[in-house]
Amino acid sequence: MKESYLLLETNPGSCSLSDIPVIDYVQFYQEISNVLQQEPMHIAHYFCVPVDNLLRFYCMVADDTTHQLRIYAHQCQRANAALESLTAVHQSMHIFEREMHENFGVDFPGHPWLKPVRWPHNRANQQSYMDDYPFFKIDSPELHEVGVGPVHAGVIEPGHFRFICNGEKVYHLEIHLGYQHRGVESLYTQTNNLLHKSVLSEQIAGDTAVGHALCFSQLIEKASGVEVSEKLQLERVIALELERIAVHIGDTAALCGDIAYQLGQVVCESLRTVVINTTQYWCGNRFGKGCIRPGGTHYPMSDREAEEILHNLEYVERRYEEMAAHLYSMPGALSRFDGIGTVTRTQGIHAGLTGMAARMTGIERDIRSSHPFQFFKSQDFKPVVFSSGDVLARALLRRSEIHESIELIRRIIQQWKNNFSSEDTLPNPDYTMAPTADCMTVSMVEGWRGEIVHVAITNEKGSIVHYKVKDPSLHNWFGLALAVRNQEISDFPVCNKSFNLSYCGYDL
Amino acid sequence: MEYSRYLHLPVPPEKETEKNKNIRNVYFGLPEASILLHHGKQFVPDLKNAVLTERFRGRPELSADLTTEEKNRLIDLCPVQAFEKENFCLNLGKCVFCKECHFALPDKVVFTNDYKIATNDPEKLKIFPGHKEAIGFNDAMRRKEIKKLFRKSLKLRQVSAGGDNSCEMELNAAGNVNFDMGRYGIEFVASPRHADGIVITGPVSENMARALQITWEAVPSPKICIVVGTDAISGGVFSSGNALDRSFFDQVKPDLYVPGNPAHPLTFINGLLELIGR
After folding, report:
1. pTM, full prediction
2. Chain B residue closest to A277 (CA)?
3. CB neighbour list of residue B69: distance below 8 Å, 6 or more residues apart
């Protein structure tokens, strides 16, 4: 029997558009609802593309055990499109169906709540505005609402949170985002200037600049059939892991700040400074902007940088562990973290959580091991997994991942020293790459938040005509809403900081 | 002064040293005291003269002998059209500091590690060929009351309007234990009602335009407006898109422009100190 989907064996993977079998929606509905019942399968992306007066839908299902990615496709008339909702069968589909409803007006009968995702500038219903959105309400004289944002008390990005509370207890949290929408996805299709797109990738979420830039770079390399050297792959992964270490330490500082533990806050702040200054020493930018470019690099690592990285990480690891050992043995801190903001494993699977938000509930979901990219292809990487799903699990997961990433960087630098000498020069970035015509390329990277997915579709001239970006926050914001249910509203800050999700990565 | 302290770290004492043994003996049972002692002083003592790593991308310098052909090459190369064709210059308000122009013409375009690039006059952000001086302020454009009112204490409200979170993190870092701008009485406050001005990051998305306006109106006069990051100054890489609404700047003229992608905490702090006359 002919396969109903196309299989991508590698990450990043590329295929010709005409090779993707287009099935009818009844079959698609059946297949997807069956396949998502299996534990190691999760949805990586689901979106639609207008083709003349049709809408073509592409759905990517990641198979975590076989390292493969399945692409399903179906299509329907654009006018009055209505498809039976898959969300009823598998809730993690909810966000994708909402997005397609918002962008193209596709109706999904059976979807519990087609709430707009981000009010993009090219939304189907230009009559709907962010500011007159009717929030979810529960009618009761016992309950009251607390509205926060979009401008928050701290120096952070905008978003509106609407709590429905009974006294101190939160019954429901509605997260209202879209303020940050800058039209990223449509900017990718505006020019063919690869440098512009590289810079744009770094701005999707500034705290994940390396992650998104790496995802874009390996996508464009795959689409153009370019292989980069092993040495460059090693250096890219070092940058990615440095970013992970820096953010995890910074988030530990933020958690300490929220429980008014000042020593922990200032110690972790200063340790984060050491890590990002190491990145700056290497590439001139504290967030690694400019470090990752398609085809090559302007900042090849030399022995000098390798020594600096090893030296600083040794310092950071020792100082961080000293702090963490004390912090996580303090009753005052533990009582604020332990058992607070719990997300169960079942909730995690239903919400489609990715990255560290999934791993703290016991779901072993990590692109570095399930769909290895770059250096990880040659590694048998085992992610750290916690199971309690509370703030403490997220805090301890960060602690373990910091150690794991530092170890990983040490191993990589050792391998880098053993296999390469300073004579193995790396090429400069190549902005003249031409992606193959009429193809679809999917690229996945495990950023520090989780699974970053970029998908590009090219036309007959090889220009990118459709670009989709998925930041892990797209799934994980719902995890935060679940975490604060039945918690005291005063625990919201620690819950929020322990997830540390991206507003701009979600709003695009 | 050499590299600032926070770049080259004091090497922590090894476990065997005599000093460390004393720390353990004296502070046994007081882990926090031992942590404090191990960390030592972390703050940058002199924020005005700290030296950043040589690769830091700060104030660029263009060679005076750029040929027309080279100028055209730079204009074509820049992803955000930061090179202006008429009266050729590099506009730092548009530059995203990707440094590609340097890599294309290494002898003609150089990025120095001079981080003092904040100014009160957008014209000063234009780097002309042969211009090698510090950016500095335009004294004619200084508002007299700023120095008088805010010299000793300046409270700011931050509004992120489409910012990518890197500028926001750098603004947070400006108040952290390393940079500690609080020593000058400069702080971020939670409410616009408590603030003397606002700090805008991000290119001002359409969805955020109204909230920005409301926040600005909620700050009592006299007040100042500061734009941080290339995105906020010109829209940066997003300026060619359709999702921005920058009409706010038609009515409000910023008092301080802080370029960068993101702006370094030292750029921000030094700009502020110059603005309030410290």
Report:
1. 0.92
2. B7
3. none
